[in-house]
């Protein structure tokens, strides 16, 4: 395909909000970007003959960065939504997620969705969790730049619950927060993650879909999935 040598490989500039483990976060020591999304986009880039360069930024800055041409693709646990679909192209879904509720370990008052009414909620700005929280009757919603900051506020007692993506909540509790926090209730919904590209760059969107399909067929996708979610 094009006969490109690695030195001539084209660069795929990726934007991500690297505070969303296990999808994208920074290795504590090396500060390198790691996670399921990072491995996946590196594999996709390789499949396409591109060198992948990852750039960290705020989640709410990803779509503007795509629109401004500062990045080629956003890979950031980003849910495919109709509203975002007006501004960017999404790849085929690559991960099925959904929102869930996190409360303090000793909270006996919030057990399910209906108990959120009138409560103080923490969310990450610009996310589906934020949109969801804003629809809860009489809730006081506080928006944070990153999911870890929302968890910190819960720990500090400043809010009653966090609404955030279930796999990220699970990872947080498993790795750091099991003494402090717990997930309650059923998942609030089902969401699909997609890789976002600029509206006008339909060629790239097609290439990404093709590469994703290839990786699913070859078993490479499953390997990456196992690495981060296998137990
Ligand atoms: N999946 C959620 C969304 O798309 C949260 C993504 C994130 O915080 N990285 O809004």
Could you characterize the architecture of this molecule?
The protein is an alpha/beta fold. The chain folds into 2 domains: 6-95 and 192-229, D-Maltodextrin-Binding Protein, domain 2 (3-Layer(aba) Sandwich), CATH 3.40.190; 99-184, D-Maltodextrin-Binding Protein, domain 2. Helix content is 34%, strand content 25%. The protein contains 8 helices and 14 strands. A 5-stranded mixed beta sheet has the order 4-1-5-14-6. Strands 10-9-11-8-12 form a 5-stranded mixed beta sheet, with helices on both faces. Helix 4 (128-134) links the parallel strand 9 (120-124) and strand 10. The chain is globular and about 55 Å long. Glutamine binds at residues 17, 20, 59, 76-79, 124, 127-128, 147, 165.
List strands and helices in order, with pairings.
Elements: E1 10-16, E2 25-26, E3 33-34, H1 36-48, E4 50-56, H2 62-67, E5 73-74, H3 82-85, E6 88-90, E7 95-97, E8 99-104, E9 120-124, H4 128-134, E10 140-144, H5 147-155, E11 161-165, H6 166-177, E12 181-184, E13 191-193, E14 196-198, H7 202-218, H8 220-229
Parallel strand pairs: 1-4, 1-5, 9-10, 9-11
Antiparallel strand pairs: 2-3, 5-14, 6-14, 7-13, 8-11, 8-12
The protein binds glutamine.
